[in-house]
Specification:
The complex is a heterodimer of chains A (229) and B (240). By secondary structure, chain A is an all-alpha fold. Helices cover 77% and strands 0% of the residues of chain A. The radius of gyration of chain A is 18 Å and the shape is elongated. The mean pLDDT of chain A is 93. Chain B has 240 residues and is of the alpha/beta class. The chains are: A mainly alpha (229), B alpha/beta (240). The interface between A and B is medium-sized, with 28 and 35 residues.
Chain lengths: 229, 240
């Protein structure tokens, strides 16, 4: 499994297909994020923003990976490693890259917005820092999984026509961000605007995102093994 | 390994590409599939190689497998050796064993210089050598060759013939499709014909037919020991 993941990651990097999503992430977090969030913004809001950007970035990375490998090349690897395991590796690889982007986003927000301090005394509020970071990590993971699930369900091998796949993925990403029933939306609002808006608890959003990603990966793997070629 | 009533189609509403194929591929066995273009040979080979799961039926006892696809794509962002290393690692090879397996396969096909050539820049013949090399890497087990000889130069073709003979002698098995009627004629291949999505065993002196002599092939098929609808082979074989 490690060899399969290594092959897929290598394919993603060597094909340069990770660059466009990386630019989107950089523009979203470093560029647009700077405009949206003032310097004095709370750390939680910065982490919420970074998590939000991960949804389209992870969806794009996943589409890039799922369209990177010619069918005959996949066949050679699948003969060696099994079609299901090979497909799972192709789904893990962009998720690993997306997770790395997410961590970069968290570190950036920490540097830019600073750790939470108590007013006046200028003492670091350790408890608040950890709860912000925990919330940011959870929201990032939820957004990562939602981005993956959306792209996996709407790209090859499940949806093969490029026009349908691209339009469908774009629409689903917008929906995942904007619709208040989406786990990604709930996660972002719960840490960005804690206490101000009613959303699902983070735990429920996490379970929903995990369920979604497991279902999406299972469907993609099934289709890859059965309806190939 | 064996196939039991294997059937394959690429969607619920699509026609069956192959149906009711039952056969046993013993250790040391060489199996050739024949049939006209689009008769399902490549699909059946993909199922045998484990690239694709059957829609119905079962494939059991498949050993380590190397597969050469019909058309190997040069559109991968790797150099020859990097690509072979990836495939070798998927087969569980590492370190010195991996390096020597790659060297042995490339030397055998006369393509050591392909190590440093990017797959994108390879000619048809060069990338076909890489395709064959990646399938030979495990050095044992099942070899599935879908017109693997096409595009190879004469020495590489001979080297592949030799590799097949060696694999059989070592107790591995080889399944192949090729449009050249005389391919591997010196080895005793069990011949199967695909027609109308069904597979039938070709026995006796039906003559090498390939795809060129449709009428003769039809006659041969009539005389053949036709096993349809999940027929079993008559003679006992050692299962792998």
């Amino acid at each position: 499994m490690i060899a399969l993941c290594r092959y897929q990651l290598s394919l993603l990097f060597r094909s340069h297909r990770w660059i466009a999503p990386a630019v989107l992430f950089a523009l979203g977090v470093f560029g647009l994020g700077g405009a949206v969030l003032p310097r004095g913004a709370a750390l939680g809001q910065g982490l919420a923003w970074s998590a939000l950007i991960l949804v389209p970035v992870e969806a794009w990375l996943t589409r890039s990976m799922l369209t990177a490998e010619p069918a005959a090349a996949r066949a050679c690897v699948a003969a060696a490693g099994g079609p299901r395991r090979t497909q799972v590796a192709a789904l893990i690889a962009p998720t690993v890259v997306g997770a790395a982007f997410g961590l970069v986003g968290i570190v950036w927000q920490l540097f830019r917005l600073g750790v939470p301090r108590s007013v006046g005394a200028n003492v670091i509020r350790v408890g608040k820092l950890f709860s912000d970071l925990g919330g940011g990590l959870a929201a990032g993971l939820i957004c990562l999984l939602v981005g993956s699930a959306v792209a996996v369900l709407l790209n090859p091998p499940v949806i093969r026509r490029p026009a349908t796949a691209v339009l469908g993925t774009t629409g689903a990403v917008v929906l995942a961000l904007a619709w208040n029933g989406s786990p990604a939306n709930a996660a972002v609002r719960s840490i960005g605007y804690a206490g101000q808006e009613r959303t699902w608890p983070a735990g429920v959003a996490m379970v929903a995102a995990l369920g979604l990603v497991v279902a999406a990966w299972a469907i993609s793997t099934q289709v890859a093994a059965r309806r190939d070629g | 390994m064996r196939l039991d009533n294997v059937a394959k189609r690429y969607g619920f509403t699509l026609p069956w590409v192959v149906r009711d194929v039952s056969l046993e591929i013993p250790a040391g066995g060489l199996v050739r599939f024949e049939g006209k273009n689009g008769s399902g040979k490549s699909t059946l080979l993909r199922v045998i190689a484990g690239v694709s799961e059957p829609s119905r039926g079962r494939v059991t006892g498949r050993p380590v497998t190397g597969y050469v696809p019909e058309r190997f794509p040069p559109a991968l962002p790797f150099r020859g050796r990097d690509y072979l290393s990836h495939i070798g690692r998927v087969h569980g090879l590492t370190g010195a064993a991996l390096a020597s397996a790659i060297d042995a396969c490339l030397d055998r096909l006369g393509g050591r210089e392909l190590s440093s050539v990017p797959l994108r820049h390879m000619s048809k013949g060069m990338s076909q050598k890489v395709a064959v090399a990646q399938a030979l890497l495990p050095g044992a087990g099942l070899l599935v060759l879908d017109e693997a000889w096409t595009g190879l130069d004469a020495p590489a073709k001979a080297a592949l013939d030799e590799a097949v003979a060696e694999r059989l002698a070592d107790g591995g098995s080889v399944v192949f499709v090729d449009h050249e009627p005389g391919r591997l004629a010196q080895l005793d291949a069990e011949r199967w014909r695909l027609d109308d999505a069904h597979a039938s065993r070709v026995t006796g002196d039906a003559g090498p037919d390939g795809d060129k002599s449709g009428a003769e092939v039809g006659d041969a098929g009539e005389q053949a020991d036709v096993l349809r609808g999940g027929g079993q082979r008559a003679e006992p074989e050692d299962a792998q």
